[in-house]
């Protein structure tokens, strides 16, 4: 295709999406907040476009909606309608949706109502609960472009759902749209030549992050009803969740099925892309994990899934937490340091024990992950880019210039990784020498990235998240605070330790990121999803952010 | 090194091993059965070299030995001594040992006795139980040549145990020797330029198989006390176990740690080599699984291990089994067909349900596994061969001629495999349409290989086992019978379907394999190790081989 071709295909696709919105819900351009209004978090509620009922519904958690459906106070249709209306408004504020199929979602909800009416039985634990989907998840009847112009209509409609979508659909979940992602889902910002950039509702001058950036820009605007599914191969759930103060869980591979979803790096197995939930409430997140795993039994249909139920685990009343404030490569921005101090003090104040964490092998493990991403010499990405002839974003340049590695070299990288991972695990065990209980720590708490908000084009370092993709450990994010100009001034005395550190430091401009979200990462070991979720809950209660997204 | 060099290094290594045997136990050449005595199964017991007590000890199971140790009727030293003496005899019959460290094992046993004497506590569930080790497992103070002359003294002594060895050692297990393997553990016969071939005690004119061939040749000669650890990447536990009528379990990856053991294909992750137990009794095998997993907690120290306990599972009283008799590629020899008919009839006679199994994608999955093995272009193998300049066995020629694949092609093979595996799983689910219960089958029972015994150099096809390495499913072997000249005549009317089938058929010579072992494979799904073990037990009881290795 020529240059005009890729632009015209992208325009057609954009046009098709825009046509799928419902006229009645579209807000005239002039009634929307102007571009210089950065913080739009409360706009959907305050704008007057939502009815009281729509607000009540979308401010309800999964358990609350489930109860209301069960007692027939609310219909699935009512919920889907409120959900779509509020998502429609959100989209106009931050450009978060990719595929829009409100009509299908409402039809699906209606059928669920009819089913319940007729049988007096709910379809399953997700009956009538709306779930937002990242673009890479295939939905029957919809396209999946994952940011490539060449995939915008290729195929125009998928014939089957991704397995996780069909499992949830069987259990009654309702799907109304999908959300924007970066090209190949391999950039830390959700932008592409079809839909452009998805910005953060905390500060529309900053990026929503990536690759689950469409999801995470939407979440805060959708309220407490929000639960979405994203994916994470180097931080793609945790990075955008942290830039929007959402709760997310990056599970170990095998807990949630990824079968039948579209990948930007298909066939890469050296590091597994995983699916995980993102939400405004821990309640929704737990509901999702427990019901999807225990009722969905994904291992019956995905040979890579592990037959491990969602288990009830105990955590000690007195937690022992290792804190990492700086990985020694790129120093986090002041607000993140402030957040970690706050977490530390709050933990200690309530009698929990805090020790330091050493970022053993973080830099090398991050580099290894990068090598795995690029190990096919970008061949698969280039093939997809070549479908349309679209240009390559700066973030993706390494996919153009890397070599298609010989497998013999890949094996050597694998061997190195295995050794480093076991040394990392040994360091965890060795903490028993430092804790007062004599047991190893319960979790690590640390930054998600160096960025407490970041302007478009400046997200350069994923070392704080990627290390746990290399390890395949369970990790989540917990909201802490927002950037405050008065508190988060640049430390003018700081001496950067390397060029990346220097650039990151130089690019910090507190005015640019005013009001941005500040979260921390909670990390447990492989397959300890239940434990990390419990500790995320505890920590958010301890620091007072468990109701971060309640209206009160 | 020159040709003489590799031969002289091999001779030195052989000499060092031979020197490690205890003089008092060595049987003069002329007292050993002559080479034309093929079946030596009962020779150790009948030869008169073992004392009555040594026989009683070595004919005891793990539970029996554990009880005797606990009540101080037997010491760990007595057991280790009987174990070593009988292994010494076995080695003289079939050439099964690679590293011999009887003295260390006896010392270890003595220390355990002293510990028990002093503390009145057992070291752990394996206190005083001897475990045989495949050569690839590192033992502190010993070498690990895995069939390469260049590794014979490189290093001369490992400084640490493989993780599985140290875990078992901490729990009181005793190690006295390691067993022979093929070069790189990548041939289906246990031969190499250091130690030569390990033959089957059922018929010394036939191979013991590989790669856990040293283990499996030893097992039948050691009696009911025998438990060894082997490994399996394409059939390396199941093939030799079936050629010696032993029980083995090939677990899914992540159940048993492989960390810190020496690999012939280091860094290969497209298909995982797994560790598993081999034994003369299901009792020992279960003892090992339960205690190693639940007490050893390998996941604490191996980042690839899954935190999944050994679980108590229920299997239906009335089993539903799918039988595969022929994979459509290479037809099994007559005795295997006879064994499967016997299993089928026995199951049906006792009210169990039997349906047919379709070998969906078996050929392609086997070819994919082969591509993964060779995907580094044999670079790692060649490096190890070049250390000594030793020649390449015919079985290993593909490692000399394959290309070092670009990673982009490897990704495509991964994607294909993922799809085929899920289709295979779907076929399992679909059996519910054929079963009287309306549930899917409980297990597949099928051949382990086409061979009911095979002469040296003629084991050509691993399709019956490799498919489950591609799937990473749980599979085991159960002894059924032995080859009988009168029953297992060549079917002269058979029309082979392809060159491999033709060659296999042509090479069948019932006289050559008279008396050889005939086992079947029992297969359950991924992570269903507990279920496959339970069904192996049930099946062996149903067909009357649960006491196959008892003296009576």
CATH classification, class level of the largest domain in chain A: Alpha Beta
Mean pLDDT of chain A: 97
Largest interface (CB < 8 Å): A-B, 45 and 45 residues
Helix content of chain A: 25-40%
CA-to-CA gap between the ends of chain A?
Answer: 53 Å
Strand order of the largest sheet of chain A: 1-3-2-6-8-7-12-13-11-9-10
Q: What does the overall shape of chain A look like?
A: globular
Question: Count of helical segments of chain A?
Answer: 18
Radius of gyration of chain A: 22 Å
CATH superfamily of the largest domain in chain A: Amidase signature (AS) domain
What is the CATH architecture annotation of the largest domain in chain A? Alpha-Beta Complex
| CATH topology value of the largest domain in chain A | Amidase signature (AS) enzymes
* Quaternary structure of the protein: homodimer
Bin the strand percentage of chain A: 5-15%
- Report the structural category of chain A: alpha/beta
Tally of extended strands of chain A? 13
Pfam family, one (chains A, B): Amidase
Organism (chains A, B): Lachancea mirantina
Protein name (chains A, B): LAMI_0B08284g1_1
InterPro entries (chains A, B): Amidase_dom, AS_sf
């Amino acid at each position: 295709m020529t240059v005009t071709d890729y632009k015209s295909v992208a325009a057609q696709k954009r046009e098709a999406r825009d046509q799928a919105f419902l006229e009645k819900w579209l807000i005239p351009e002039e009634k929307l907040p102007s571009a210089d209004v950065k913080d739009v978090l409360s706009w959907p509620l305050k704008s007057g476009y939502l009815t009281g009922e729509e607000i009540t519904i979308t401010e309800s958690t999964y358990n609350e909606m489930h109860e209301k459906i069960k007692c027939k106070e609310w219909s699935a249709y009512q919920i889907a309608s409120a959900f779509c209306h509020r998502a429609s408004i959100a989209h106009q504020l931050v450009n978060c949706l990719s595929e829009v199929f409100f009509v299908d979602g409402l039809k699906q909800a209606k059928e669920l109502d009819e089913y319940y009416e007729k049988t007096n039985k709910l379809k399953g634990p997700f009956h009538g609960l709306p779930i937002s989907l990242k673009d890479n998840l295939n939905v029957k009847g919809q396209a999946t472009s994952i940011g490539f112009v060449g995939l915008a209509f290729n195929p125009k409609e998928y014939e089957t759902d991704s397995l996780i979508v069909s499992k949830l659909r069987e259990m009654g979940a309702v799907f109304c749209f999908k959300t924007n992602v970066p090209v190949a889902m391999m950039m830390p910002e959700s932008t592409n030549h079809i839909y452009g950039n998805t910005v953060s509702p905390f500060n529309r001058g900053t990026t929503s992050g990536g690759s689950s950036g469409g999801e995470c820009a939407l979440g805060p605007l959708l309220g407490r009803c929000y639960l979405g599914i994203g994916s994470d191969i180097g931080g793609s759930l945790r990075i955008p969740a942290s830039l929007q103060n959402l709760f997310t869980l990056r599970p170990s591979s095998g807990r949630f099925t990824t079968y039948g979803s579209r990948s930007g790096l298909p066939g890469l197995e050296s590091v597994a892309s995983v699916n995980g939930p993102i939400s405004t409430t821990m309640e929704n997140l737990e509901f999702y994990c427990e019901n999807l795993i225990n009722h969905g039994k994904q291992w019956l249909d995905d040979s890579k899934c592990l037959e491990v139920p969602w288990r009830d685990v105990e955590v000690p009343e007195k937690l022992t937490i290792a804190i990492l404030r700086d990985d020694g490569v790129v120093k986090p921005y002041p607000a993140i340091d402030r957040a970690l101090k706050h977490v530390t003090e709050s933990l200690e104040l309530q009698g929990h024990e805090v020790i330091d964490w050493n970022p053993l092998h973080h830099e090398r493990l991050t580099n290894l992950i990068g090598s795995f991403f690029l190990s096919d010499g970008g061949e698969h990405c280039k093939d997809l880019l070549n479908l349309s002839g679209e240009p390559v974003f700066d973030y993706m340049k390494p996919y153009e210039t890397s070599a298609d590695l010989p497998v013999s070299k890949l094996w050597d990288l694998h061997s190195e990784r295995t050794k480093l991972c076991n040394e990392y695990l040994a360091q965890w065990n060795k903490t028993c020498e430092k804790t007062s209980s004599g047991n190893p720590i319960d979790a690590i708490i640390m930054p998600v990235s160096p960025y407490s908000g970041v302007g478009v084009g400046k997200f350069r370092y994923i070392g704080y998240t990627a290390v746990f993709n290399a390890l395949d450990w369970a990790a989540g994010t917990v909201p802490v605070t927002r950037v405050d100009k008065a508190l988060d001034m640049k430390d003018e005395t700081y001496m950067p330790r390397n060029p990346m550190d220097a650039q990151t430091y130089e690019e910090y401009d507190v005015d640019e990121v005013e009001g941005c979200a500040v979260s921390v990462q909670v990390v447990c070991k492989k397959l300890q999803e239940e434990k990390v979720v419990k500790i995320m809950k505890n920590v958010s209660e301890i620091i007072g952010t468990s109701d971060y997204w309640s209206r009160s």
